[in-house]
Amino acid sequence: MYSFLSWMLGIIFLVIGYGVVVAYPVPDTRLFLFAVLAASPLFISSALLLPPVREAVYDKTGKWLPDNARVAVIFALILVSVVLNGLCFKEKERFILEKEARQKAESLAAYFAENKAGIISELKELYDNGKYQEVENKAFKYDTLKDPEVIQLCKKAREHKLLAHVRKIPASQIQLNKNIYERLLTLCPENEKYNAKFNYYLAKVREKEEKDRRAAARQKRIDDQFAYKTGPHINLRRYIQNGMNDPNSFKHVSTVYEDKGTHLIVLTKFRGKNAFGGVVTHLVQAKVNLDGDVLEIQATR
Question: Which of 3, 239, 243, 260 is 20 to 30 A distant from 206 in Cα terms?
Fold first, then answer.
């Protein structure tokens, strides 16, 4: 029974290994080597099971692999074969995709060579009629062929399309203008007009970025003067508390400010105890500089 099982499993592994090799009948050396490598663990497993092979190895080496060790080795070889078969399958898919891509490219090149005059004529007609997007769409199909005439027509169509677009954009949209002239300059590096326009809008963009940076820094300088977004002005609160009968009774109600450019006008409403211990509400209007220093108390009530 044991001998029969060894024969049966040995033959099964041998057939499966052969099936792995012939399952990839494509003329690719790398893929064939992958298939042989994936089948090798199955062939080795078959050799470990078939009695004639085991006996031949014993006659040559005088060594006999115990049954438990042989089962463990065969199990490990099967796992290795499964992993290698997965890699082999992926390699086959890659090969097929590459083959299909090559066939499509060859077919396209043959079609273009046979019909080039008509294709160029059609592209020129579309260009002359101002259908620049259609020129790009049709030329894109032949992009991989790198034909000089198609490239030139596509380039001119793209240039005129961008020009038509940029004429509709207000000069105030400096970032968009800069981006389009940058693309035009990429298409026509020697064009002085595009170069001048690009540099003009680039300077404007950088000027705006610097202005925005300074404005953000200035706003942060102002925001840092307040305890939180709607909180009291830190230095003005301290100034008010220093003049109160009971500084600990200070309760902030609201604070608003007006930016005057060189300074702020801050209006704070708060509650606190008076000399008689009663809680009263006050309003204080103060002038503070951009560093948060209280310059003047303009009004109180």
Answer: 260
CA distance linking residue 97 with residue 88, whole number of Å: 14
DSSP H or E stretch at residue 128: helix 67-128
Q: What is the DSSP string of 212-271?
A: HHHHHHHHHHHHTTBSSTTS-BHHHHHHHHHTSSSGGG-EEEEEEEEE-SSEEEEEEEEE
pLDDT at 57: 66
The answer to whether residue 123 scores a pLDDT higher than 70 is yes
Q: Hey, what are 244's tokens?
A: 């109160």
Domains of the chain, by residue range, sit at 2-103, 134-212, 226-300
CB 159 within 8 A of CB 133: no
User: Helix, strand, or coil here: 282?
Assistant: strand
More confident: 149 or 301: 149
Q: Which two tokens stand for residue 214?
A: 């300074």
Model confidence over 80-108: pLDDT tens digits? 888 888 877 787 788 888 888 989 999 99
**The residue to which tokens 């050799």 are assigned:** 47
Asked if residues 237 and 226 have their Cβ atoms less than 8 Å apart, the reply is no
Answer yes or no: are the C-beta atoms of 266 and 226 closer than 8 Å.
no
For residue 133, how many C-alpha atoms fall within 13 Å in the half-sphere facing its CB? 2
207-246 residue pLDDT tens = 999 999 999 999 999 999 998 877 899 999 999 999 898 9
Sheet architecture: strand order including 279-289: 251-259, 263-273, 279-289, 294-300
